[in-house]
Design a protein that fits this description.
Nudix_hydrolase; Nucleoside Triphosphate Pyrophosphohydrolase; EC 3.6.-.-; 27% helix; globular; alpha/beta; 12-stranded mixed beta sheet; hydrolase activity; 229 residues; 2 domains; NUDIX hydrolase; 41% strand
């Protein structure tokens, strides 16, 4: 499981997975009871963490306090149990969105001073794929054809004092009509732009970790599909 907290990724993996400690800037014992912000720099490995450690970890990471942190990898003995524990600590919200292609260009939206992908929450009774198409078409005023599922991302945030765990389903799409393309201003979208590979690479630096993660999965999916042809 890969979870983003304030744009910082936490990789949760089984303790049985072989990891090279020399690839990390700091290695911690998961049985520790007190976390110090000063050691969270670069890539951090926490070995065999207890479920209770995640509560302290989230509190430490909230508010973008760990400026020098790149990533955290946490190994756990029971991956399934930890996932259930994490979900029990948050209100779960589901959303869906997509990477839209037109010829050799990809569509990005500019919202809240970041380049982003169109997405939104599921309505009652909607499937993730239905919501993904609806949200993309509403936010960009275009028509799309649904493609393969890319995967899902998880990230946490606090809203009105409540801790939210948001699961977003992502799909590949092809644009079928963009003749009236326009940003949905009421959703704080300031701009929409088709970008080639160079523009996309530059814009992703001014984006979120979750969005870069989606593109990594998307590129793997496209490579796999190309190899099957």
């Amino acid at each position: 499981m890969k979870l983003f907290v304030d744009n910082k990724p936490i990789h949760i993996v089984k303790s049985s997975k072989v990891l090279d400690p020399t690839e990390f800037d700091c290695v911690l014992d998961g049985r520790i009871t007190t976390l110090s912000a000063r050691v969270f720099k670069g890539d951090v490995l926490i070995k065999k963490a207890e479920k209770s450690l995640f509560e302290s970890l989230f509190l430490l990471m909230q508010g973008n306090k760990l400026k020098k942190l790149d990533s955290i990898t946490v190994t756990v003995d029971d991956n399934t149990s930890v996932k259930h524990y994490l979900k029990s600590r948050f209100k779960i919200i589901e959303a869906a969105g997509g990477i839209v292609r037109k010829d050799d260009k990809i569509l990005l939206i500019y919202r809240l001073k970041k380049w982003d992908l169109p997405k939104g929450k599921l309505d009652k009774g909607e499937t993730p794929s239905q919501a993904a198409v609806r949200e993309v078409e509403e936010e960009c005023n275009i028509s799309v054809q649904l493609g393969d599922k890319i995967g899902s991302t998880w990230h946490t945030y606090t809203q009105n004092g409540k801790r939210i765990l948001k699961k977003t389903h992502w799909y590949s799409m092809v644009c079928t009509n963009d003749s009236r393309m326009a940003p949905q201003l009421e959703e704080d979208i300031e701009d929409i732009r088709w970008m080639d590979t160079r523009e996309l690479r530059y814009s992703l630096y001014d984006s979120y970790g979750t969005i870069r993660s989606v593109f990594q999965k998307y590129n793997k999916l496209r490579k796999k599909l190309d190899q099957s042809l």
